[in-house]
Amino acid sequence: MTARSLRGTVLLAHGSRDARWREPIEAVAARMREDDPAVRVSCAYMELAAPDLPTAAATLISDGATAVHVVPLFLGMGKHAREDLPLQLDALRQRWPAVAFSLAPIVGESPELVALLARIAIKS
């Protein structure tokens, strides 16, 4: 990213018809804003909830983001992360060729998250 680029982050999760399911995802976004009030973050869902990834990206871009970083909040490498997400990113890159889109590894592959989940499981 150049000094002039503005990065937005999309926290991408699976989605559910149950509105309460979104609460932990939105809590991560709220914590990001608390830790850094200048952060630009939006939540998105692959299915069963809104907004979807294109809508969340459009919102960040309309707010001035010139780079969008997608963080898949999946514990495992399933079909959405392996097949659907790359196709959606390709479509976003075609729709907004001037925007730099990047993709983080799924959070379930993070050693830090694995260690945290183990500590939570031991304490419970």
From TrEMBL:
SUPFAM superfamilies in alphabetical order: Chelatase
CDD domains reported in the protein's UniProt record: CbiX_SirB_N (cd03416)
Keywords: Lyase, Metal-binding
Classification via Gene3D superfamilies: 3.40.50.1400
Record carries keyword Metal-binding: yes
Pfam family for this entry, one: CbiX
A GO term, aspect molecular function: metal ion binding
InterPro entries cross-referenced by the UniProt entry: CbiX-like, Sirohydro_Cobaltochel/CbiX
Name of the protein in its database record: Cobalamin biosynthesis protein CbiX
